[in-house]
Amino acid sequence: QVQLVESGGGLVQAGGSLRLSCAASGRAFSSYGMGWFRQAPGKEREFVAAISWSGGTIYYADSVKGRFTISRENAKNTVYLQMNSLKPEDTAVYYCAASRGGYSSTRSVDFGYWGQGTQVTVSS
Q1: Partner of 112 at 20 to 30 A CA spacing, among 2, 6, 77, 84?
Q2: CB pairs under 8 A, 24+ apart, for 45-49?
Q3: Cβ of 17: how many Cβ atoms within 10 Å?
């Protein structure tokens, strides 16, 4: 069992940056694959980025590639999402997710644990 708490969301102007953090409880964090997903109003939840337990395998959605960076610090039970060059279309609730499989995945069904989400709003 793992509990996830996101932080770092907020309001930022287009072109700005934010860093999201996801703190996980439990001693098995280093064995979990981690991911970030987002959901904009009226839209389905979509994949943003994912990282394997070791950090060796990373995936990004095409829409964020080159602008967002996912990373993790297993010693701190934390995964991060650095978001640069933000656009209004990045506005969404961002969710952190954990997969017991330990691998990196783009599919939400592979993640069994989810945080409550943090709002990111990018103004034009």
Answers
A1: 84
A2: 45/95, 45/108, 47/106, 47/107, 47/108, 48/81, 48/94, 49/81
A3: 11
DSSP assignment of 61-102 equals -TTTTTTEEEEEEGGGTEEEEEE-S--GGG-EEEEEEEETT-
11 phi and psi, to 5 degrees? -105, 130
Helix (H, G, I), strand (E, B) or coil at 19: strand
Identify whether the C-beta of residue 6 lies closer than 8 Å to the C-beta of residue 96.
Answer: yes
Tens digit of each residue's pLDDT, the chain (124 residues): 899 999 999 999 999 999 999 999 977 898 999 999 999 999 999 999 999 999 999 999 999 999 999 999 999 999 999 999 999 999 999 999 999 888 889 999 999 999 999 999 999 9
